[in-house]
Amino acid sequence: MRYMQHGSDSEVRDRSGLLRRAGRLGRSLMWPAIGAFTAAALGTAARLAGPLAVGVGIDRGVAEGDKQVVTTAALVFIVLLVVQYVFVKISRYGIAWVGEQYLLNLRSVVFRHLIRSDTAFYSRSKSGVLVSRMTSDIESLQEFAGDGAVMAVSNGLTVIGVAVAMVLVDWQMAVSTFAVIAVLVGVSVIFQRQAAKAYEQVRERIGRVLAGLQEGIAGVRVVQAFSQEQVQATSFGRVNEAHYRANMSAAKAISWYFPAVGFLRVVAIAAVLIIGGLRVIDGSLTFGTLVVFLLYLDWFFQPIVNLANVYNLLQAAIAALGKLFNLLDVEAHVVERPGAYDLADPVAGEIALSGVTFGYDDETMVIQDVDLEIPAGQRLAVVGETGAGKSTIAKLVLRYYDPQQGSVSIDGADLTDVTIDSRTDAIALIPQDGFLFNGTLRNNLAYGAPDASDEDVWNVLRAMGIDDWVRDLPDGLETQVRERGGRFSAGERQLVALGRAFLDDPSVIVLDEATSNLDPETELEVEGALRVLLAGRTAIVIAHRLRSAERADRVILIGDGRIIADGTHADLVESSDEYRRLVEVWERGMS
Amino acid sequence: MNPGQPDGDIRSGIGLLVKTLRSYPRYGVIAIAGALVWMVGVVLLPVVVSMVIDDAILARDRNRLWPLIAVLIGVGIVQAIGMGFRRYFGFRLAYRAEADLRGRMFAHIQRLAFAFHDITPTGQLMSRASSDLSQIRLILMMLPIVVANIAMFVVVMVVLIMIDPVLGLVASLTFPALVLNANALARRIIRLSFSVQQKLADLAEVVEESVAGIEVVKAYGQERREELRLKNAAVAIYEDTIQIARYRSTYAPLFELIPSLGTVAVLWLGGFRVIDGALTEGEFVAFTQYLAVLVLPLMITGWFFANLPRAAASASRIDDLLSTDPVIEDPAKPVPLPDGPGEIRFDGVQFAYPGGETVLEDMELIIPGGTAVALVGATGSGKTTVANLVPRFYDVSAGSVAIDGVDVRELRLDDLRSEVAIVFQESFLFSATIAENILVGDPRADERGVRAAARLAQAHDFICAMPDGYGTIVGERGHTLSGGQRQRVALARSVLRDPRILILDDATSSVDAVVESEIQEALRRVMANRTTLIIAHRTSTLALADLVVFLENGAIAGLGTHDELLATIPRYGAVLAHDDQRAPGGVR
Known about the structure:
The structure holds 2 protein chains of 2 kinds.
Chain A: H1 15-25, H2 30-62, H3 67-115, H4 119-124, H5 127-169, H6 171-218, H7 220-225, H8 229-282, H9 287-329, E1 351-358, E2 367-374, E3 379-384, H10 390-397, E4 405-410, E5 413-414, H11 420-426, E6 427-430, E7 439-440, H12 441-445, H13 454-464, H14 467-472, E8 480-481, H15 490-504, E9 508-512, H16 520-534, E10 538-542, H17 546-551, E11 554-559, E12 562-567, H18 569-575, H19 577-590
Parallel strand pairs in A: 3-10, 3-11, 6-9, 9-10
Antiparallel strand pairs in A: 1-2, 1-4, 4-5, 7-8, 11-12
Chain B: H1 10-23, H2 25-57, H3 62-111, H4 114-119, H5 122-163, H6 165-172, H7 174-212, H8 214-219, H9 223-251, H10 254-275, H11 281-322, E1 344-352, E2 358-367, E3 372-377, H12 383-389, E4 398-403, E5 406-407, H13 413-419, E6 420-423, H14 434-439, H15 447-456, H16 460-464, H17 483-497, E7 501-505, H18 513-526, E8 531-535, H19 539-542, E9 547-552, E10 555-560, H20 562-568, H21 570-575
Parallel strand pairs in B: 3-8, 3-9, 6-7, 7-8
Antiparallel strand pairs in B: 1-2, 1-4, 4-5, 9-10
């Protein structure tokens, strides 16, 4: 089932494999990452050495009454602090830099893959999901890169460093502290599990709240027209309350965890004071060492709590990475074959379908065994009922898909053998709704021919007879197109789409006609522009209107995936019942 | 509410925050009480530690050790309980307030008149009810702890100064330094966060556009161009986030440096004073402990005050929304709508959209009950406006609109709108089943009624052909219906309502000829036995009407049958089949 392969959103099964792939993507950042890490280690070392200076200052300075030692210890401490600051600053920036660079690259890589995927992939994916890959999924990685990575490294190093330092200073007290820490870790794990579940629910429910809000705003006119205000408020109230409850679940978890952590800290202090205190009384421990331990203790607790938070971010990041790599795994099938050759210049524009059988999935064929030869320069109208297969033929000519059987060729060359660039140069599309991009009018017109000069653009506009219309616009060619051309009428958008095709100067034009009637003023201009545009080019018009069929050189009627009738409009009216019926419906719509 | 004005008035914002706090007195009081208890525990802790050190350890008195440790544990328990209450009720306060405000905003938005919604983009309202509300929630959550932090800071300063004035003052210098540092960092980051949000939205737009226009992108082989656009958007984001990283790497480590410098000062100066016998070792340790324990609270306080202006601005935007007048409301003494054929009477009606030019001027029109009337006119002629005035989606500026002899302003809105149903140009369906959507017309109807309405609207067949039939979920997150299908479901919805007056916008512009004729047939059946107003866009619709009203520049330029007008008014013929895409508002 070629076109139905799906990058699923299922759980990340192979975590280590995923991390390896993710790592490979950031290969070039290895040395900077190592550098940042080293700086972090040095900073942590400087930090941990600080209390030692304090310990010495107390034992050999304060206890001995030697002010000189105290001063020296203080100065050493200050130097260590400055060193620490410098290294921490470098490492924090370095880690963030590595993370952001990685993301920058990842965004481009994922998008590149996305944009080059088959049309088939787009038609079976919800666009919202695709967009969220590039936005919210990468953004959760961003959170990790910005905060989480730095926290993970600095806190991780600190925890390790403090643990080592504690053991070196006095292993007995270290062990008793570790016992408390073990309890802390256990408690943190329980909390994380509870919290993760609660947050998952919060995320889901806020989604519903926002959707409910969006819908309530979008449909407010209908709500008022049908006096649904109360009903809406009640059903939104339910969604709102559910979100509140989810929030409070998370709140409950937080409200026991952090006090527990605070209490454990006091227990740890008590433990140090008892064990250490007794040994100081015995004389087997110096007071300074005791103070050092108390200082280290504070540096132990906070990082562990922080690491617990980072764990959550890490989970979210891994889930996001999983989804992104699933996307990267989707293979494009309509690709340029190695050894593909350019179409021979000049391209006449003769299109042929030979024995073409095609279906969007391998089970249902939409068109069966179609043979069609379109001589260069012919204007062909493809008509038929909705779903009969007319736009499918166009999609095959544009090579959005490859047929299961048979071949589509241009000037005798199979589309699968020809380079993509030369093919897109030769064939242009005018879509149903004249899709415009945000940007200037000029950018839209020159979309297929970015090297076109202003003069080229004006020439085309003049040839199509619409230069006056552009000149009358407030900013002329520089008019900003916003909301994808929503401010222009359908007819005006069509004119721009026609201009775009014209500038592309293709040999073949695929025109997917709009089903609605355009406003009468632009209708005439569109007709005129179309006449100029199609002259001398092969045109495949997916027609919805009587006039289009009448104006074509040849009409083919598609029914049930086959060509049922083929000839001029006049021929078909005489010879084909089905065609006559279609014409009757058209005529009824016009009277 | 002025949707174009992003920032609010700080004072009204603080006012809303205070009012919100006062609405949940119990939560607020318990949370702050818990915070203060916690604070006492935090402040006492170093004192007890110093007692343990001085009176037990250094005094070599084992007997004093255990009771003092017990006190320490006790303080720990008190501190934990205080924190628990502080956090839990802080959350309770914040989340409850958030949910209540959101519910109020939703209900209010739904009551605001069309005129408001015409000029207010959805995005603005969404951000009021989501990100602005988040700001308020964050501030409310932080309030108890900030109160405790400030109290703690004051108490600790006093304690330290009592223990040793000189050392106390020196150590206390770290506190404002920490707050200022937090403030400085927060301010810079807040500014950049806004920018990042905007750039993330820009990137999302590039992605959305490329995905929506993928066919054009591929047809013109412009993948590389789109990749470049995305790269630029990604670089723009990078520039901001790396700047944030720069700020963080400079300011964040100061949160450790500053207290550590304080510790150095304590070590140095305190060490000297212990040697001189002016300070005990226990007090010395207490100082270091206080410095450690105050770091986080001071950071939080700094952050809080940095965010307060932003939260106040958000609050004022919400306050703005909540105090916007709905304008169209039930009258103080509503009059019941008498039975009648559905006669519509426009008497000297004048109307202008808010801030716009006059659309209707002194319009007089009587539509007898049971007639089918087509409104024809060019863009801006007023036909949509006329339709919108009947269900009272807007109020006239002069004159009156009456139904069966009663001015619409004197009726209860529910009563009025149960007898006047409208099928808008863009049929909106809720995210629910098809049956539920149709039931919106009359929630008391049964399954038979729903099917009958659907049959009348020529929708029954295609509904049954759907995967789950009437149970198929449509709308945003469901099955996507074609334009013609949506229109017919909307028509069924109105049919079920069985109104006296039916208003239709016949712009079925996104269907093909076959479906179009089915819809026409449906309209013909539905229009029987009621007054119908059709905003006509095509000639074929006019065949359905008994009477045509030709509007030009807000006045009636012709009234009669289609043929009469064709014969007598040349402009009439020219205007027909004009696709009305740029109506100024209302029925769209």
